[in-house]
Amino acid sequence: MSAKRPPPDPIAVLRGHRASVTDVCFHPFKPILFAGTGDGELRLWDTIQHRTLSSSRAHIGAAGIITVATNASLGDKILSQGRDGTVKCWDISDGGLSRIPLVTLKTNSYHFCKLSLAKTPTCSPQLGKNLSSGAIDQLNEPGDYDKNCEPKEKTSLCKEYHDGISNGKAQEGTENFSCISDTEVISDQGPTLMALAGEHPSQVEIWDINIAQKVALFPQIYDSSSSEFSKKSQGMCMAVQAFYLSQAQGYLNVLAGYEDGSIALWDLRSPEVPVCSVKFHSEPVLSLALDGACTGGISGAADNKIMLFSLDHHMGTCLNRKEISLGQPGIASCSIRANNKIAATAGWDHRVRIYNYRNGKALAILKYHSATCNAVSFSTDCKLLASSSEDTTVALWELYPP
């Protein structure tokens, strides 16, 4: 029997950062990688020529960058989230970073939780066929959850958001915590929503980047006498993943991971209590990623487990699909490739681990980095994986050609 092939080396190592590279993400259409660092630098890398395209000190001082994020609706724009309580939107349409941000959102959130842009479900041949319109309608029927998770009637905040936000109508009970440095619309495709940990450590806030305004939060009423969820001690929100329930209806859902190891599924139509809440981990949940269909995902935490889970939107449940035990604790980031074949995790033990997303089988352990791995991200064309580390480097990998 032939010996197993050794894990591959990175095809390129991007050097030049002066501090820990805290997060990375790929441009949705172009061969560009965005990287944010602990000293506040936002850098654009050319993933073909492996050189710097542009660099800017996006967040001043020792606060540093927590997250960099973009998606197809943002196009040639990139978000940077700093530990200075701000989220900034930058334009790169001229081939480099704009001198000043288009928008600066003063979120007043000083946590370690990375923001999440709302993810839209996509068709994946590997998962079978796309949802039919009838199935989509069924998923979005408000009464489809079981009796223990039945959504309540929309609150005035959420109803007004869905009914009036496209007309620029302000919501009652929300405040504008933003500073807009340019009147340009960030996206002309309707609301561009993001979720992030709120000013209150257990709350999740929803912001519309287009109008630079906070539009909702979970739980909406943080009062131990009015919410069963609030009576529990989940601790701080440590990870979020926002997604639309379906392409047809566009209702926003949010997965939130908490300090006590629990994960809650929230529906914008019922912000007082979660659709469901499960506890897969014994330590704080640090990372969440959803697959292309938004019907399942992967979670990592400060314990020694990785969890593959499934979401049943019809029943309103989140179920454990596969538990993967680790020799060393700590998963800082996880990502699922767009074709839903493989998933990657970034570990405190300096390792990047690759798994078969369908069955959880371990495929490879990538050992290039010499310090904690902070983030992993797949390119939208499935050809590249980027990993970043406290060793100030970014590694590019080619794994299992799509």
UniProtKB/TrEMBL annotation:
The keyword Hydrolase does not apply. Gene3D superfamilies: YVTN repeat-like/Quinoprotein amine dehydrogenase. It comes from Amborella trichopoda. InterPro entries: WD40/YVTN_repeat-like_dom_sf (IPR015943), WD40_PAC1 (IPR020472), WD40_repeat_CS (IPR019775), WD40_repeat_dom_sf (IPR036322), WD40_rpt (IPR001680). The keyword Repeat applies. This is Uncharacterized protein. Keywords: Repeat, WD repeat. WD repeats lie at residues 14-55, 366-402. Signal peptide: none annotated. It holds the Pfam family WD40. PROSITE patterns: WD_REPEATS_1, WD_REPEATS_2, WD_REPEATS_REGION. Transmembrane segments: none annotated.
